[in-house]
Amino acid sequence: MGIEQGLGVRWLAFAALGLVIVGNAVGNLLLKLGADTPAGRPLLFGLLPWQTVAGIGCFGFGILAYAWALKHFQLHAAQIVVSLQYVAAILLAALVLGEHVSPTKWLGIGLIAVGLFICTR
């Protein structure tokens, strides 16, 4: 494999890790929305709210992307990067669900981001 092909695959592997982060964060958001579905609302197959099924699908997609990305990264490095899913889930909770995130929690999120940055060096 040439250098250009190797760099292209590396970028795809980084994109796959990005999809893991997004898939897991959106999956969490959808599971929360499904859990908050009022009784009597239409359910998929009469069992689950569609949001719950879609959330499970997002997690499944994330697992597939992660499995592929692990072919190109060491486990410890990949795990550091996908830990950003926690920050992404909190941001989605604040932006989409209107959940209150206190200044202390924002400080903690910032410390997580700094820690992840340090771990990737």
Automatic annotation (TrEMBL):
Parts of the chain that traverse the membrane: 12-31, 43-68, 80-98, 104-120
MF (Gene Ontology): transmembrane transporter activity
Gene Ontology CC: plasma membrane
Keyword set, alphabetical order: Cell inner membrane, Cell membrane, Lipid A biosynthesis, Lipid biosynthesis, Lipid metabolism, Lipopolysaccharide biosynthesis, Membrane, Transmembrane, Transmembrane helix
Record localization: Cell membrane
Domain EamA, first and last residues per copy: 45-119
Membrane topology, from the record: Multi-pass membrane protein
GO process terms (BP): lipid A biosynthetic process; lipopolysaccharide biosynthetic process
Annotated PANTHER family: 4-AMINO-4-DEOXY-L-ARABINOSE-PHOSPHOUNDECAPRENOL FLIPPASE SUBUNIT ARNF-RELATED, SMR FAMILY PROTON-DEPENDENT DRUG EFFLUX TRANSPORTER SUGE
Name the UniProt record assigns to this protein: EamA-like transporter family protein
Organism of this sequence: Pseudofulvimonas gallinarii
